[in-house]
Design goal:
CATH class: Mainly Beta
Mean pLDDT: 91
CATH topology: UDP N-Acetylglucosamine Acyltransferase, domain 1
Low-confidence stretches: none
Oligomer: single chain
Structural class: mainly beta
Shape: elongated
CATH superfamily: Hexapeptide repeat proteins
Strand content: 25-35%
Order of helices and strands: HHEEEEEEEEEEEEEEEEEEEEEEE
Largest sheet: 9 strands, mixed
CATH architecture: 3 Solenoid
Number of helices: 2
Length: 201
């Protein structure tokens, strides 16, 4: 049941809101490092199964859903200095897990949905409106998504379940990634095709 204080905390703007949420919200998570910043209008489901490292930033309107049931449900783990842009959604179903490495940055309106494993490495840059995986009748249960270290992913791309994007790869805007991208690959198109290897030529 949502209390009047919860509603105020969720809405409260400015420095006061940031300060209040920094004092109250960490106790709602499975674990929470120091220096985490919480924006306004954040929605949390299964917060006891969500773990945040130091200096994570969760912007306005973010949704973190580690399953909506009880017991052995999904897990979300954000390593140190992960940034989630406004209106980004991370959602697991069943025993799915979302694991995001240190320093990775999601721009606004990104979505990660999985009933399996979504794992992203360190220092990745994800442009706005990107989508990873899916939950529902069209999903591919048991198919993981892996994004390696140092990847740059362009705006409005879709990465399907079962795909691996290798370390330091670049994927262009509006790509549909249905097959693996090799490390240091530069992939574009719908469906995405690797056109070049970084450092060659």
């Amino acid at each position: 049941m949502t209390t009047l204080f919860d509603r105020f905390l969720r809405w409260c703007p400015g420095a006061l809101g940031l300060w209040l949420r920094s004092k109250v919200y960490p106790y709602r998570f499975g674990s929470c490092g120091r220096g985490v910043l919480f924006g306004r209008f954040i929605d949390l489901y299964g917060a006891e199964r969500i773990h945040l490292g130091r200096k994570v930033v969760i912007s306005n309107g973010v949704v973190l859903s580690a399953g909506k049931g009880h017991g052995d449900e999904g897990t979300i783990y954000l390593d140190e200095e992960v940034f989630l842009g406004s209106e980004t959604v991370l959602s697991t179903a069943g025993k799915g897990a979302i694991l995001i490495g240190e320093g990775s940055n999601f721009s606004s309106y990104c979505t990660v949905e999985t009933d399996s494993i979504f794992r992203m490495g360190r220092d990745c840059l994800i442009a706005g409106y990107c989508r990873f995986g899916e939950i529902g009748e069209c999903s591919s249960p048991g198919k993981d998504i892996y994004v390696g270290d140092g990847c740059w992913l362009g705006v409005r791309l879709q990465v399907n379940p079962g795909v691996t994007i290798g370390d330091n790869a670049i994927v262009g805007a509006h790509a549909l990634v249905e097959k693996d991208v090799v490390p240091f690959g530069i992939a574009v198109g719908s469906p995405a095709v690797t056109k070049k290897i970084r450092g060659e030529g």
